[in-house]
Design a protein that fits this description.
The chain is of the alpha/beta class. It has helices spanning 3-13, 54-73, 76-92, 94-105, 109-129, 168-179, 193-205, 220-228, 242-253, 277-289, 306-320, 342-356, 407-414, 430-439; strands at residues 20-22, 25-27, 34-39, 44-50, 136-138, 146-153, 156-160, 183-187, 213-215, 233-239, 258-262, 267-271, 299-305, 360-363, 378-381, 398-404, 419-420, 422-426, 444-447, 462-463, 466-467, 480-487. It has two domains: 7-263 and 466-487, Aldehyde Dehydrogenase, Chain A, domain 1; 267-454, Aldehyde Dehydrogenase, Chain A, domain 2, CATH 3.40.309. The strands form six sheets. A seven-stranded mixed sheet has the order 14-15-16-13-12-18-19, with helices on both faces. The longest helix is centred in the first third of the chain and has 21 residues, at 109-129. The protein is globular, with a radius of gyration of 23 Å.
Amino acid sequence: MSDQTTTAAATAAYPSELELFLAGAWTPAEGRKTVPVHNPADAGELARLPLATDEDVDAAVAAAQAAWKGWREQLPEQRGAVLRGAAALLRERAGEVATLATLEQGKPRTEMLGEVELAAAILEWYAEEGRRAYGRVLTQRSPGSRISVVREPVGVVAAFAPWNFPVVNPVRKAAAALAAGCTCVMKPAEQTPASALAVARALADAGLPDGALSVLFGNPPQISKRLLGSPLVRAITFTGSTSVGRQLAELASRHVQRTTMELGGHAPVVVLDDADLDVAAAHSAYAKLRNAGQICVSPTRFYVQEKAFDRFLEVFAGTVGTLPVGSGMEEGTYVGPLAHERRPAAVASLVEDALERGATAVCGARGPEREGWFYEPTILVDVPESARIMNEEPFGPVATVTPVADLDEALEHANRLPYGLAAYAFSGGLANGRRLGEGLEAGIVGLNTYAVATPEAPFGGVKESGHGSEEGIEGLDGFLATKTLHEA
């Protein structure tokens, strides 16, 4: 069967009518405004998506508040059983979910299958970790007295999930809130609705009570203001740009809603001359072009020690040149399209600015001559720090490579920006590795690895890349209030 036939058959499987998941009910458009959902590989329309009204948002919040009492009173093991059931259903439906997600987001289907598996693993992690939201009993201050500390769910959570990981991001938000005993109203990205709805369906089919989760789509500022304007919403969790994060934080301040923010990054990579350069360069190519560079922890600014520069660049560029670009539904594709129509122009603008300021393109620096929203994998050298791409996250398949004299200069460049989500370093020396691990200003550091997202480890940034963590034992903190009980 040809790639075109396979893609056509998959496209036919995409739902012709998308819905909202409102208070446990699948709610069609029925007079609501709709917007198109596109396939980024060919820019074709997949379906129309209904947008929630203000009344829909209010109904979702009211339903979440009503469901909270019963959900929080369920035993952690009972809540965990729902999450484990949803994980099993996602694995059972992995092929279908991966196809839907690839069609609307663009990343290769093989990569999307891995994302579905990670989402299932996150659900299982929170199913267990929800049983370990421990308190403690303190030493007595007087005979017969007792002081105890307990953790309690905060209430209704507003969750905002972006499009770059259309299955994992909704799971990260919903699983943490639900495991803590909270209920959730989620607004995923309008570009990738079927993926988020597949997560909601798995949770609903696993026995999640009506109202404990709603999934709404709509105009982002309108939905945000309506959700955070409700005093019933007690926490928000957001993944997205720093600029939008600031706006949400301002909205949240009116009702003093607690916030978990995973915001923008601009991940540096330090490569020292004592590293295994061939391995570092090859791994860097694969990591940079995963999801076409549309990852908040994607490596972008490479600072390579002068003695290692030529060899690293040779292997890096050589590997990049071997990675096939195409539709995510085509067998063998490694680099898919960018997720929506604004991204190619945004990436091109950054590249063109760098070239105008004296940078040199080792490869790429253009959009391919094909349908869809693609941009060729690009490596830039001789890029001045004044170039926009050295200061703005490209969120695309572009990397800059800069020579540095030593570790100290590398750290100075790496820590120059106000962002601190992820940073990476490659070195074969133990002492250098320790200095890099301590010196890189980021919430997540990968030493000789780009594998930095696992359910067991906290995922979050510092500085203007946000606060709070997802996953790990820290992942429940944003949804649990601390209560101290003093008994005489």
